[in-house]
Write a structure and sequence with these properties.
The complex is a heterodimer of chains A (439) and B (167). Chain A is mainly α and 439 residues long. Chain A has one domain (60-269, 306-435). In chain A, 77% of the residues lie in helices and 0% in strands. Chain A is globular. In chain A, 56% of the residues are buried. Helix content of chain B is 76%, strand content 0%. Chain B has helices at residues 6-37, 46-67, 76-80, 83-117, 130-162. The radius of gyration of chain B is 20 Å and the shape is elongated. Classes of the chains: A mainly alpha (439), B mainly alpha (167). Chains A and B meet through helix 1, helix 2, helix 3, helix 4 and helix 14 of A and helix 1, helix 2, helix 3, helix 4 and helix 5 of B.
């Protein structure tokens, strides 16, 4: 069987299995083991087992449950809610003020969490009802929550970047530093969009009545001070990574301890909080890791069959300039993002794409930021848009999945714009790592 | 979704205990950082133990997630089908999953067997048999996943026979 046929059968088969509704973990795994047996016999399966074993023993992978645990504790404490209230109180009568405050709060939460889901649920429960009550344009409000809540995995720390770094062997700390500026640019683009829309049409984002925004300064300050400790934890975690004091895993573990300490200081540390947060972490990790096992099996056999060389020839055969190749890859990732989870995409596509990209003389750190931005699109794009599903779970019943998906388009466009910006100006991603003394 | 099979319940119970490993990992890693920076006395065991505990928890997480059928899937197509066709599709999914898990179990069991024959150890300062334990745990998890899926298959078959939508 030629490698071309194998490629078509493997990826075609994967798409069919996914559309049939087979969980991603089992679909990728099934393709992996079936092709291993078909091409290399039953003994070839040893390779699958040993790849999975190697994967689960990566030290940096330990940071994944730590970041998830940290986020789960934060969600269960009142910190996130206070953050939103604090932002609300401190904003004036800006057009679209409440949506912009939601975005500021989402960005700050993004700096505390590395995964999407919890943040969207939280904003959906806290911010969405407020915006709807003030008579905000529904689509603008929904889009704000979905796009803002997805920032969790763009603004460092980010689980997406941890897995990317692991897959292509790039220091995760450097990736975090590189993603910071593009993440903030994305968040600023969202805010600018909300501001402009509401400025042009004030009925889209009416301000809150004065009675709600006026509050004695002392109360405002008290609200703000309750956030000092959690924000300090964030600074501590990210600071130690950026300054290279602790490894990413150690910083994440310190983040867990710091978050627990902050919750304790606020009088919110109860056993149920820790227990439920740990349980949620286990389920999330169980899904992430077994999906990784499946994907690593599939890409392992594809590598052995000579897949990467085939794709490289295919792409260089397109006779495109290097930048054109990068854009083609981005398009492929965006399409994959419509039907697949980011972990699957990262483990399947990056081992093939990144060597080609570095062969063209580009930085794998820069490409990692592009990948991360691309996955922001995948959270929102139908039919498989996790952000929409998370919001649907907590939104008022009259908000349908179709309405959510129809609301996110402007934000997907903004994500694409920022993606193109980082492609055109790689310095957006590479300036800070160089400043921090990276490669 | 509430698990109705005993094996699913067992997977969830094990998962509940395993989830506490993450808290342990956070605690001992923080201990290591403090020992290193405050007392300049880095430990020799934290690194190895954290990797081992995390891997063990990851392995346990698979069956725990499967118990609630929490593994991510795209349900656009199945959602459009009639309850009966959905049940039929579910049966097909279960069968395909069984093929995967059967082959994976074979691979995992062989791996564990080879590791057990040599009593494989980590080869580090601690030289613990952690690779052997992990490989054995992984094989057990594969068997559990297989049995869980058999349970799901039986349940989906009875849904199909009764003509109702699967859970």
């Amino acid at each position: 069987m030629s490698i071309g046929t194998i490629t078509v059968l493997m990826f075609g088969g994967l798409i069919v299995l996914l559309l049939l509704g087979l969980p991603l973990a089992f679909a990728t795994g099934l393709i992996g083991v079936a092709f291993t047996v078909g091409l290399f016999g039953l003994d070839g399966l040893q390779l699958v087992a040993s790849r999975i074993f190697t994967f689960m023993n990566e030290y940096v992978l330990v940071s994944v449950p730590m970041f998830i645990l940290m986020a789960s504790v934060l969600e269960r404490s009142g910190v996130a809610k206070d953050l939103f209230s604090a932002m609300r109180v401190w904003a004036g009568r800006l057009p679209g003020g409440l949506a912009i405050q939601t975005m500021v709060a989402a960005t700050l939460m993004g700096a505390m969490t590395g995964i999407i889901g919890g943040e969207i649920v939280l904003l959906g429960l806290v911010a969405l009802p407020q915006m709807l009550r003030l008579g905000y344009d529904r689509r603008l409000a929904i889009g704000t929550i979905c796009a803002g809540g997805s920032l969790g995995s763009m603004i460092p720390p980010s689980i997406v970047l941890v897995i990317y770094g692991l897959t292509v062997n790039v220091p995760v700390g450097e990736l975090f530093t590189a993603a910071l500026l593009p993440g903030l640019v994305l968040s600023a683009a969202y805010m600018a969009y909300i501001f402009v829309r509401c400025r042009l049409d004030p009925t889209m984002g009416p301000p809150a009545p004065d009675s709600e925004t006026s509050m004695p300064l002392l109360v405002k300050l008290r609200l703000l001070s309750s956030l000092a400790l959690p924000l300090l934890v964030v600074l501590m975690v990210l600071g130690t990574i950026y300054l290279g004091i602790a490894s990413v895993t150690e910083a994440a573990a310190m983040g867990v301890v710091g978050t627990l300490a902050a919750a304790a200081a606020r009088g919110e540390l109860r056993w149920v909080v820790v227990r439920d947060a740990a349980r949620q972490t286990l389920t999330t990790c169980g899904m992430l890791l077994w999906l990784s096992f499946g994907a690593t099996a599939m890409i392992g056999v594809y590598n052995l069959a000579g897949g990467p060389a085939f794709v490289r020839d295919l792409i260089t055969g397109l006779a495109l300039p290097p930048l054109g190749i990068v854009l083609v890859m981005m398009a492929v990732l965006a399409v994959l993002g419509c039907i697949m989870d980011w972990v699957g995409i990262c483990l399947l596509a990056m081992p093939i794409f990144v060597p080609i990209v570095t062969g063209l003389g580009y930085s794998p750190v820069w490409f990692g930021v592009l990948f991360c931005l691309n996955m922001q699109i995948s959270y929102l794009s139908p039919p498989f848009g996790p952000a929409a599903f998370y919001l649907k779970g907590v939104a008022p019943p009259d908000i349908s999945l179709a309405e959510i998906f129809s609301s996110v388009w402007p934000f997907i466009a903004l994500q694409a714009v920022v993606l193109v910006l980082v492609v055109a100006f790689p310095e957006l991603a590479l300036y800070l790592p160089r400043l921090a003394g990276g490669s | 979704m509430k698990p109705i099979h005993r094996i699913d319940q067992a997977a969830e119970t094990v998962g509940r205990f395993a989830s506490l490993l993450f808290v342990v990992i956070a605690a001992i890693t923080a201990y290591e950082v403090v020992m290193r920076y405050v007392f300049s006395a880095p430990t020799s065991w934290v690194h190895e133990i954290t990797v081992f505990l995390a891997a063990a928890a990851f392995v346990a997480g698979g069956p725990a997630a499967h118990a609630g059928r929490a593994h991510i899937a795209i349900t656009v197509l199945p959602d459009r089908l009639s309850p009966r066709s959905r049940a039929r599709l579910r049966v097909l999914q279960d069968l395909l999953t069984l093929v995967f898990l059967g082959l994976l179990t074979h691979a995992a069991a062989r791996q564990a067997e080879v590791s057990a024959r040599d009593v494989e150890t980590s080869g580090t300062a601690l030289n613990l048999p952690t690779p052997l334990v992990l490989k054995a745990l992984f094989a057990v998890a594969c068997v559990v996943l297989f049995l869980q899926t058999v349970g799901h298959l039986r349940e989906d078959l009875s849904a199909l026979r009764a003509g109702r939508a699967p859970r």
